[in-house]
């Protein structure tokens, strides 16, 4: 098991989970997949024009902003809770986090940017209440962007 000193980033914990759990039921875990395709994202305070969405609705909140900002799915760590939390947010044209659910500059973000979320909607359906990357077609779409 890898040692992590200090406050772990989302990428640190993603790597730790992937190394220690790897596959469940013979399928790569979301952590393993996002570690392969993801990157870290830098926080920037939420723009004033972006309204805060309901708590615990990150997938819906991010999908609501997908016409204006690119959709990202991955993981966040909070400074007060050193756990890997599956999360969705958006990024602006400069690649900075636009998060309608959380707004703490100490959060750490690691995920996969999905520039054309409308393609994902067609493949996995328009159910915005949960992860699109838990479904294989969503992963295949991101892999095809490589």
In helices, the fraction of residues equals 25-40%
The structure class reads alpha+beta
The side-by-side strand order for the widest beta sheet comes to 3-7-4-5-6
Please give the alpha-carbon distance between the first and last residues: 30 Å
How large a portion of the residues is in β-strands, by DSSP E? 15-25%
Assembly state of the chains shown: single chain
Question: How many whole angstroms does the radius of gyration measure?
Answer: 15 Å
- Alpha plus pi helix count: 5
Average pLDDT, to the nearest integer?
A: 81
**Number of domain units:** 1
The ordered string of helix (H) and strand (E) elements is HEEHEHEEEEHH
Low-confidence stretches: none
Biggest sheet details: 5 strands, antiparallel
- Total DSSP E strands: 7
Shape: globular
Q: What is the compact description of this entry?
A:
This protein is an alpha+beta fold and 146 residues long. The protein has one domain.
Q: What report would you give on this structure?
A:
There is one protein chain. The model has no long low-confidence stretch (mean pLDDT 81). The chain has 146 residues and is α+β, with helices and mostly antiparallel strands. The chain contains 5 helices and 7 strands. It is globular. The strands form 2 sheets. A 5-stranded antiparallel sheet has the order 3-7-4-5-6, with helices on both faces. Strands 1-2 form a two-stranded antiparallel ribbon. The longest helix has 12 residues, at 10-21. Helix 1 packs across helix 2 (30-37). It starts with 9 loop residues before the first helix and ends with a helix. It has one domain.
């Amino acid at each position: 098991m890898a040692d992590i000193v200090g406050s772990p980033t989302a990428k640190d914990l993603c790597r730790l989970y992937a190394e220690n759990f790897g596959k469940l039921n013979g399928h790569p875990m979301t952590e393993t997949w996002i570690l392969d395709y993801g990157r870290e994202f830098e926080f920037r305070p939420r723009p004033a024009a972006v309204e805060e969405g309901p708590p615990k609705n990150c997938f819906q909140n991010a999908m609501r902003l997908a016409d204006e900002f690119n959709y990202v799915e991955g993981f966040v760590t909070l400074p007060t809770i050193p756990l890997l939390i599956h999360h969705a947010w958006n990024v602006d044209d400069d690649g900075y986090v636009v998060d309608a659910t959380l707004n703490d500059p100490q959060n750490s973000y690691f995920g996969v940017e999905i520039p054309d979320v409308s393609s994902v909607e067609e493949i996995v359906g328009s159910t915005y209440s949960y992860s699109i990357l838990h479904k294989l077609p969503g992963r295949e779409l991101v892999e095809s962007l490589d």
